[in-house]
Amino acid sequence: MTTSTGAIWLVMGGALTLLCGALLFAMQWLSLAGVATLTLLIVIVFLICAVIVTAIEWGAVSPS
Questions:
Q1: Is the C-alpha dihedral spanning 18, 52, 50, 24 positive or negative?
Q2: What is the pTM of this model?
């Protein structure tokens, strides 16, 4: 666990974001389209935050 780069978490997060994104995009034509849109944006923001945190951690452990 301590030697992992964290890339698997980003890959899985990206795959699940695509899956959720496809389902939430399909929900745009339902009566609660605003909820689907807001949730899709939240999911995307969470993935971006995960990438930022991983980038910060990679910078902290890389040799100078």
A1: negative
A2: 0.69
